[in-house]
Design goal:
InterPro entries: SAM-dependent_MTases_sf (IPR029063), SAM_dep_MeTrfase_SAV2177_type (IPR006764). By secondary structure, the chain is of the alpha/beta class. Helices cover about 40% and strands about 15% of the residues. The chain is built from twelve helices and eight strands. Strands 1, 2, 3, 4, 5, 6, 7 and 8 form an eight-stranded mixed β-sheet that branches.
Length: about 290
């Protein structure tokens, strides 16, 4: 297959409405059965499903992992969250998971897509403990000093710093390790940092058919406003520098503290594509991470 030439690098910063260029956030919404997407998003998402049929399963596995890691944070007593690259609100939003257990729990979403931000603001307009920043996670200073963040989050207390799926769209030229470190350093000891990405490394040896399909999917996303950047497990592991890893370390998403949900997806070809792990920010008084 001949792949399109990747588009030039775009400037860092929030995006305005563009219904003509497919957007990864809106495509993800489409895979999950949402309605906040445009014709261009649906058309490219269908192309994606043609080259990698398990794409919707991969999206659902990532969403299920998000729910599990938020619950782990809540179990640890964390009641405030910064969700980087949150995407379009859909079923099982972070603030819903949090506030079901902790009614006054606080959540700040961050996304640079205008559709995601507008939709989230409508959902959150009566929720004084949740907000969204129209910002780019590649600008950590802008995000961390945004009024919504400063109003709702107290970085002197442990935070759930969610980087679920977002670094998939951050290429090496933006130094993802440096971004993780900057956000980590803003958080108090005891904060928990879950990160998930897509990898091609595991399927290369175990499932050559899916390996070819994921490479073709990367080519499809050259026609979107965001491109896919798969990472090796060792890359992901290196981003947890300065943190203690929680068990079971870096694993494929269905094997990270499974709870029996999404059984069909757990056994699909997507199971070897998504990987994740969670780290705890170190401090003198932080307990052993094996306690969680």
């Amino acid at each position: 297959m001949t792949r399109a030439t990747p588009p030039p690098l775009q400037p860092i910063g929030p995006r305005s409405y563009d219904s003509e260029t497919p957007n990864a956030s809106r495509m993800y919404d489409y895979y999950l059965g949402g309605a906040m997407n445009f014709t261009a998003d649906r058309e490219l998402a269908e192309r994606a499903k043609t080259v990698l049929p398990c794409t919707p399963s991969l999206a659902r596995l990532n969403r299920s992992w998000l729910r599990r890691v938020v619950d782990i944070c809540l179990d640890a007593g964390i009641n405030q969250f910064l969700d980087l690259g949150s995407g379009i609100p859909t079923v099982g939003n972070v603030h819903e998971i949090v506030q079901r257990r902790v009614p006054d729990g606080r959540v700040v979403y961050v996304d640079y897509d205008a559709t995601a931000v507008t939709h989230a603001r409508k959902i959150l307009e009566d929720n004084e403990n949740a907000g969204i920043v129209h910002g780019d996670i590649r600008d950590p200073d802008g995000v961390l000093h945004a009024p919504e963040v400063r109003a709702l989050l107290d970085f002197e207390r442990p935070t759930g710093l969610l980087m679920v799926g977002i670094l998939l769209y951050v290429g090496p030229e933006y130094d993802p390790a440096g971004l993780v470190a900057t956000y980590r350093d803003a958080c108090a000891p005891g904060s928990l940092v879950p990160i998930s990405v897509i990898t091609t490394q595991l399927v290369a040896d175990q499932d050559p058919v899916t390996h070819k399909q994921i490479l073709d999917l990367i080519g499809v996303y050259h026609d979107a406003s965001e491109q896919i950047h798969p990472w090796a497990p060792d890359d992901l592991r290196s981003w947890f520098t300065g943190m203690d890893m929680l068990d079971p370390g870096i694993t494929v998403l269905p094997e990270w503290r499974p709870d029996g949900a999404l059984e069909a997806d757990n056994d699909s070809a997507a199971r070897l594509l998504g990987i994740g792990g969670m780290g705890r920010v170190r401090g003198a008084d932080t307990p052993d991470p094996s306690d969680l």
